[in-house]
Every structure is written in structure tokens, then in C-alpha cells.
Amino acid sequence: MSRNILAPPLVYMSNNRRYRVNLVHEDFNDQRQASQAAMKGNLHNAKQAYNERDLYGEEHNDEIDDDLSDIECQNSIFKLKIHVASSFYGGLIGFKGATKRRLETETSTEIMIPPRVADNGNKSRETNVIIKGKTRNAVATAKRKIDVLVASLRGRMNATHFFGVALNYDEILENFQVFKELILSAQLPSIDESLFQLDSSLHATLGACVLMDDVERNKAATILQSCREFLANVKTPFKVHVRGLEIMNDDPSAVRVLYAIVDSPDLQLFSDRCLQRFIESGFMTARDAQRERVKLHMTLMNNRFKEVYSPDTSTKAITKTFDAREILKRWGDFDFGSALCKEILLCVIGSSRENKGDFYKISSTLKCE
């Protein structure tokens, strides 16, 4: 038996680390050069030459995206351009570039992040993150790591958009106005009009997203339109019935959000499927991304409205909660009526408060008639 098999050459990397140099097919020149250098005692050249290749790097990687068609190869260098909203650049770079250097070291790639400067109409300015590497696998792995990091950063941000259905019309609107007047006329402690949702903003939220630039907003709009296929197995327009009160926490004496229950089997089925599609996009808030079902509800009162929008917040202290015990006792089974919902909307959070009397600014609409 060949001595090369019984006593293969070794590469000494340090005092406590040594590796056997496997003799492989001649097509793998780097490994063959390393073994020859090691057999001649030239360990420095062996270390330089020995660079074990990923036999499946360009074709197989169970941990990366299936679609690698955007990776280009020029002069044996693989390059990929990916869009990352500029709001995430700081997180990708890290303190004094530490995060970026770590990603490059772990994946053996070079990552170029464009500076955050005003566009000023300069169409030639690069707006994509560019990844360069010697193998397709290295570039794809770097992309995956960037995706994971961006998802983590997105999870720490507040929602910017929601998708849902408008309920600010007909019977539901009229009964909400009656409901609000009943509560205000009761003159309950810590309850005032600033806690209530605006009449024009009544809606049922299906999910909330974090969309940081026009590219992400356009992608979210495309995702919403792709949910049209889910309408095939449900009856439209959606008939919804709003009745009964619930709170977001377990203590009715310290409530932040009071909402009405929305009942609609067809909308529930559609919403659950639509939610999963948005979760797959990576745009959902951290809380909604963990859900399997949509909790259909119509927000009636929220202490955040008082904290953020009340004109008196600069002069008086704002409590974090309100006491809803008497509201639940007197009007816990209040019936707001029914409505037909003919469209699913992607809306900008907070935009209705900026223009009182109007519904939220709509980014995209999916017709359900």
C-alpha cells in the first residue's frame, strides 16, 4: 500500500493544530500543490496553496435562497447587487465598521455599502449593497447573513404601514358615534374624547409592516395584489359584523387598547392566508411575524392616541392606561352593526391624524368585488 495513504503529509498550522493533506484528483490543482509542498517540507507554500474548495458551492446550499440568478461572474469574481433600505445601513456597518468586517471575514467576501447622502437627482449614484467574492456560495451566504441581520433590525422598528379593511361608513360609523357619546356623557374617570379613534379612521387591521423606502413599499403593494388568488375560495364582498368589547390585556382597570370584535368567516380565512404571505416577505413587525392567525378587531380607544395627539400633552401628565371596567360592564355587548367590505387596503400608519377628517393615506388597494 502506498505510503502516501498510510502516512499522508501534514500541514502544521500552529503548535496545537495540524491537518492531514488529502491526496485528491489532479483536477483540483490547489490541493495537489499543497500536498506536494508539504511532502517537500515547504509548509509555508502548503498553507498558501491549501484552500479546500466547496464541491457544491455553485450549485447547492441548503441555507441560501434558491434564486441565485442575479449573481454575476466577471473575471472569476462573483458579484451580487441587493437592495437594502438606507435605514439599515448603520446596522450593517456597526460600530466603527465592526459588523461589516465580521460579515466579510465570516463569508470571505467584500461588502460595499453606499453612503447615505441626498440623491439630488444623481441617477448614476449606486444605491444597492454590492457583495463580491471568489465563489458563488460565498456571495450567496453573505446575502443570507445580511438578510438575517436586516430582519433583526426591522424587528426593532415601529410599524409604518398596515393592511386591513375600512369600517368608517354606514351602520358601523353611526353606532360608533352613539357608543362614544354614551361613554362621554357618563363622565367616567380618566375618560375623555382624545382616547377615541377618529370617526374617519375606523378599520380592522389584518397585519402591520415595517416599510422603510419606496422599493419596499412597492414590493408590499405587489404582495398585496398577489393575494388576489386567495379570493377564489371565499365569498366577496366580505360581510362583517362588529359586536362586543374586549381589551388587549388582562386587567380591565389598566387598559391601553379597547376594541370591538369583528366577525367574518370569509374575511378570517382570507386574512390568515394573506398574513402568511406577508410574513414570508420579511416585512412584518416582530409581533405579527409570530402569528398564525389574524385577530380581527376594530380599535375603539387607545391611550396612545391621547399620548401622541392630544393638544394637552405638553401641560399635563399622561397616564399609561385607562380604567375600562365600567365601560365593559355597561356596554360590553354593544352591537356596532354590519358592513360589506369591498377592498383590502395598504395604509400609512398615523396619516389619518395628520389630516383629520380623512381616512389613512392609501398605498395600494386590492378590490374584492
From TrEMBL:
Matching InterPro entries: AKAP7-like_phosphoesterase, ASCC1, KH-I_ASCC1, KH_dom, KH_dom_type_1, KH_dom_type_1_sf
Keyword set includes Ribosomal protein: no
Entry GO MF terms: RNA binding
Alphabetical UniProt keywords: RNA-binding
Entry GO CC: nucleus
One Pfam family this sequence matches: AKAP7_NLS
GO annotation (BP), single: DNA alkylation repair
Name listed for the protein in its UniProt record: Activating signal cointegrator 1 complex subunit 1
Organism: Glossina fuscipes
Record domain K Homology: where: 76-151
Keyword ATP-binding: no
